[in-house]
Amino acid sequence: MISFYSIIFKLTFKLKNSQIFHMIFDQKILMFLVDSYKCLKLIILFELILTHFNFCSIL
Fold first, then answer.
1. Are 33 and 5 in contact (CB under 8 A)?
2. What is the pTM of this model?
3. pLDDT (average), residues 13-33
């Protein structure tokens, strides 16, 4: 995930000369990435809990 973010930031720096795009990119895309990352963490947590309960039920 960190490498993905670094690619995004590199892309942002390359396009920094177009200021309007940079502003839109910062606000919209970055917020979307943060939200999707939070979602991903929740999904992983949920899966871990489910597998834990499945494991307990087997025992």
1. yes
2. 0.39
3. 66
